[in-house]
Amino acid sequence: MEGLMLARVLRELAPKLPLRTLGWAFPDETTAALLLEGVGNLVLSYRPPQPVVFVSKERLRGDPRNGFQRFLANRVRGDLLGAEQLKLDRVLVLHFSGESGFVDQVPSRLLFEVTGRNANLLVLDAAPEGGEPFEGRIVLAAREITNSRNRFRTVRTGGSYTPPPPYQKLDPRALSDEEAASLASVPIGKWRDKIDGLGLLLGAELARRAGLPLDQAPGGQQLPEALAALASIVADPTVSEGVMQGGAREAARSDKAAALRKVLREPLDKRVTLLTHQLADVTRAEAGLDVAAQDRTEADLLMAYAHTVPAGTASALLPAFDGSGEVPVALESQLSAVQNAEKRYTRARRREDVYERLAEREPMLRAELEAATERVAQLDGASLEELETLSATLQSEKPERSPYGSRYTTPSGLEVLIGRNNKENAALTHRLGRSMDFWFHVQGYPGSHVLVRSGGRELDLPDILYAARLAAAHSKARGGGNVAVDYTRIKYVWRPKGAPAGQVHYTDQKTVWVEGTMPEEG
To answer: Which of 84, 145, 224, 333 has a 20 to 30 A CA-CA distance from 352?
Structure first.
């Protein structure tokens, strides 16, 4: 049920309020019908994924089927004082006066989230004078939502109700001329992204009434007809049979394509961001070469004039080699002149090594960035069928997942398992691996543990290189050239006492040097 449909129900109900209530009926376990004097039954069907609200003249019967319905029948009583909608969102609240009797019932609110698969019916405390109608304490919920099911929003008895997050859309009941003009360049099928209360069905019905294809913007000439169609939907949000069968299906296809495109783009966008940052590292490392050159110059001066620098001094003025004058050199007073020079040499070598390592990867990074950017552009223009084909292809290329890590197979058919986090690394190495299986890890970088289940036999060179490249590609050295990978039997790998999961020591290792890319990429 969409926002404008819900607004129509409340619009027809509002002039008759307040209304005397004549009790509840429960046709099934997720439907509650409130009999209103002179109106009929206000039916609240809260079964996901198609919750609805409507007024029915039909005589409905049924006793409470569960604890929530028994609570409704006994505690949500009295006159229906008001009915409100949250903007044109699919959320409404009904205000009840409570009643006096053998057991007095206090005023209360019944809040209905008519939100597809997240549909819910909640009893709230009465709103305080001047308080927010869509906030308050939850007395009882038909469906409790804990943070294990939804980490952004919980719905629990006794907790505070949190309305759906706010959003900015145009109210079709009060469009200004400027707001209306802004819709001229928007395809009619996308108006539901801009206008409150429109969903898939009403969006397709709007296109039908405006006489426009879903992907066509009305432009200046057809904008008046499109706005007239929108006004007619506000007045009568009834959907024709043809739209139910055809237009909504096309709109659903568009939505499905957008959702699939978003899923496929997310890893590509992350990859583009990562590659951009890595190329920025190359630029920063290149700038660091000037600092390294300065360090070397000062170190050379300190080595040449070490005998003239007094111990414990914090700075020195040393003659430049080219005779251009004296060069000020800052010193660490607790170190000698030679030790200060050695520290500068070490720092310069580190900067130069970082640059050399990153510069070696720069061409590959730029090629990857260009390819990733091109794939993003292709996704933006792909049809639903092309997106589904690409999704299926990527799914088939994913390694088989197991409870213990990603699974691969070596050229000779041996099983390879790769830890995806510290917990899985520890499980592979200390629980699943047998003493004569082989264990691989990149030398000097954080990364995944790679287990080759060899059954005690020696590994052939192609298997060693395959597993080593997997270890390199699943480490911080990914993408590098000449990555050193150690391998040894599991029996030579142990976890130091008190060390966190995934941290190990090992002996009797051998080392191979491989490219830091997946074997299939090479």
So the answer is: 333
